[in-house]
Amino acid sequence: MPWPAWIPLGLATALAATVLTAPAAAQAATTPGAVLDPAHGSVSWQSPAYAKGTGGGTESCPDAGADPDNKVCDRFDLTVSVPDGYWDDNPEGGVPLSVTWEKPSDDFDLYVYDDHGRQVASSAGTADPEATVIPRASGTYHVLVVPYDVHDNSFTGTAYLPATTDVGDLTSFSGGDGTYTIGAGRLTARADFLTGGQLRLQADPSGSLSDPAGTAIVRRQPAVERHTSSFDAGDYYGIRSPQAVLRVYKKPLRFGLYRPDNRTRIWQEDKPLRWSTGGMRQSLTRGADEQFFGGGEQNGSFSHRGQTMYVSNSFDWDEGGYNNSQPFYLSSAGYGVFRNTFAPGVYTFGTPVTTGQQERRLDAYYFLGDAKQVIGKYTALTGKPFMPPVYGLEPGDSDCYLHNANRGERHTLDALKVADGYTEHQMPLGWMLVNDGYGCGYENLEQTAKGLEDHHARLGLWTQDGIDKLADQVRAGQRVAKLDVAWVGNGYKFALDACDAAKKGIEDNSDARGFVWLPVSWAGAQRCGVLWSGDQKLSWDYLRWQIPTYAGATMSGIAYNTGDVGSIYRHDPKMYTRDLQWKAFLPAIMTMDGWASDLTTGKPADQQPWLDGEPYTSVNRTYLQLKERLLPYMYTLSAEAAKTGVGAVRPLWLEYPDDPGTLTDQAKYEFLSGPDFLVAPVYQGSDTRDGIYLPKGTWTDYRTGRTYRGPTTINGYHAPLDTLPLFVREGAIVPMWPKGTTSWQTRDRHELDWDLYPAAHGTSRYTLYEDDGVTRDFGKGAAATQRVSMRADGSGTTVSVGASKGDYAGKADSRAYRFTVHGDPAPRQVLLDGRLLPASAWSYDAGTHVTTVTTPGLSLDRGFTVRLVDER
After folding, report:
1. CB 313 within 8 A of CB 487
2. N or C terminus: which one in the chain shows less Cβ crowding within 10 Å?
3. Which pTM value belongs to this model?
4. CA–CA separation, 472 vs 305, rounded Å?
5. Eight-class DSSP state of 716
6. Which residue blocks in 24-110 are alpha helix, DSSP H?
7. E-strand spans in 241-395?
8. Which among 743, 491, 469, 739 has a CA at the least distance from the CA of 626?
9. Glycoside hydrolase family 31 TIM barrel domain: from which residue to which, for each copy (predicted)?
């Protein structure tokens, strides 16, 4: 059954047949309405028939006074009157509300507002029914239903108060060899211990277990761990596996997971499972210092202790939205949980921790380990992050060029004029979407693709009107596909089907890697697409809340998450540049053109990074070229993500989990790009950045070379427009392409630079990953790695570069190296494999405290050593 299907079939039938009489006050009002209270458990209403749709959102609906008969949009007032605390332990967390229509090809969109006019819920995809939940509903709500794309159709609206039932005492227990069956009255449960420290726990009050998600999310079911045994401890049955003990308490039935010693708690239910009309929740004891992360993309946050987190199909693109949410969370207690469902959920990380999904069943996978191990196991289950083409890590540009209502009549080939601008201004460009806009088609596709290739860019197309055209489009040169909210409808399972199909469509018709973007998704999307946080308006707040959003998404295995540079709808030169600076340290970025207006003048404003003139053009060029130079570093992180599930953009806590400072509000608005770069964006209209938190270790200011000893907080950091506060970890070994590189295709393949930050003690190690960058041959082993180590001692620094092991198409036989080694003192001499390098081959800059060493071309078949001998 397609999502959302949280209303049981019997209940849906009953609701459709039940229409409550509105109270007298409501009858007298212009807008019809009804009451939900303990005496009135459900309500439904029938809309007028609409001859045609509005083709727009809520802005297309006139005021109620101008639409008294709801002929344009339908309005219904719903008053919810429940006792205090009604929602405190309710699996559904609010009033479920849905609209259903007769013609599935049509589309009604659903919005809910409180008495203050604030939108509190919505469902605006193409699903039938459109369904949402009014969270913790109490008071009067105004339901607005927009007939977006309708042809002589009406709908039935339904809402109900969820009633609850708790699990009773254990009535049966049996099993072995890793699988155990548990009964408690009508409820049937099963525990499957899986290899690698994993547990699947299912429960259903219907008495039979089901799996409506099937193979849509879980791609590979782990093998059962058969080395288990059970024992009777009196109050509970224990099931012992090599990694954990599951306690099955008898009166009432509850579960608890413990370490193998059966004393150290991992998680423990404080109350039995509770189910409701259309939901089920689990309630857990919260640890004194336990922290919680995950939930996919949660706009504006990465740490959720003390917070309520929603996972569902949301179209709130701003702070507090969750359009790319996932039913997964990770705990600092050493476990993570994935709910195998397409049903919406509400997770409250208070005391206790309650996690509820809007379906009358539990299907949860529990993963054991530290945060990175849990992310790895979760993505092994739902799909590891895809390996992008190298041009996918270069900037992208999107606009509609054919019949653009916002910018006047243009043609697809006009996109090449924009590509000319990138080339002229020496700014990298990896790909372009040339039909990005509603109703925007394309023409001259092959010529456009060829013209973009001449600029070292790839052709992308928006697929709102169908992915069945991909075969022909890919053969014509398409290599990037962008999905939209149209793919959230029936049969697409939160766009997962479309994401998988679009990636497959590119790969089935070319030797390229599929590269897909989508703004609304679900668990598993990391395996096939780049997620972006939707359509926003520019403000300093827009810059601020995105920072924890993308770092937090990594905690759910989302390796590629981003937002439009400068937003889609508004433009300001300073904000745009500030936004571009820090997004240069995200793996994927895109500029959206054709929709924005200038914040000051209100006039249309395109958003290519050179259009604002100086000083903005030069600053934007600097950071885009720096992003390009760092592609070997970012590409290696992509290869690691494809293996481990851990993406490049990380909250500080992920690398420093024992440091409470990483959970403060200050650390919330900075992130790590890989383990080595700490990025503290300027998100206010100021030249000063306060509250920069640096964890334990020595950190080097990337711009000035000044070092700081952490943990510490920097206030008053001077950051004029051209300065992004950026710090590099002691011990970092960073591969870079040569200065001036603007494309992966035109880079000098016979030179590789290494930016080095020696640690005072110990040895640093790094392994560079390389392949051809575009084909899928890497999956057959066509790739190379090169190991580098760095060690400082009392007399100097030694850099050891290993041979490049492996082969791929286009691999060079040899290359020169340029090392930039940070730190004092200046070397007295520099040796290459024990032989003195001439003075012309190296230099020391006393202002930046950097020694630069260049080598001649060296064979990639053998390693070598560079030794900097100190003056002392």
Report:
1. no
2. C
3. 0.93
4. 49
5. S
6. 24-28
7. 245-249, 254-258, 265-276, 280-284, 292-296, 308-311, 325-331, 335-339, 345-349, 353-357, 362-368
8. 739
9. 501-637
